[in-house]
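Incident log, structure service

09:12 report received: a user says their structure output differs between two submissions of the same chain.
09:20 pulled the input from the user's history:
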Amino acid sequence: MDDLDALYDQLDAYADSIRAKDRLIEQQAKDLAALRSDIEAQVRIAIEEAARASGLERDAARYRWLRRQAVAVKNYASGNPNWEIDWALRGESFDAAIDAALAQGKEG
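09:34 re-ran on a clean worker, output below:
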């Protein structure tokens, strides 16, 4: 029976080793899932920031175009300069007009 008891002890130790490895694998799977979630969140943030940067680049191009189009400044002494340009537009129609002129390659 001593040989059989020794064999049972070895099997128990082996089973304990397998259970420990299973716990380690489960923890690693949880860690990997958390890392994947973090990476996905960072990718979403990067995409949002790229879109934001693209909008800022468009705004900067509009400003540079507008700056080249300005022909005169009136009433600067009042601290509120009024730029004269070829047309009077505001808001989205203003942006659309600038975008159209940029697309056509119009320069001031």
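09:41 both user submissions now match this output. Likely a transient worker issue. Closing.
09:42 reviewer note: The two ends are 101 Å apart (CA to CA). The beta strands are 72-74, 82-84.
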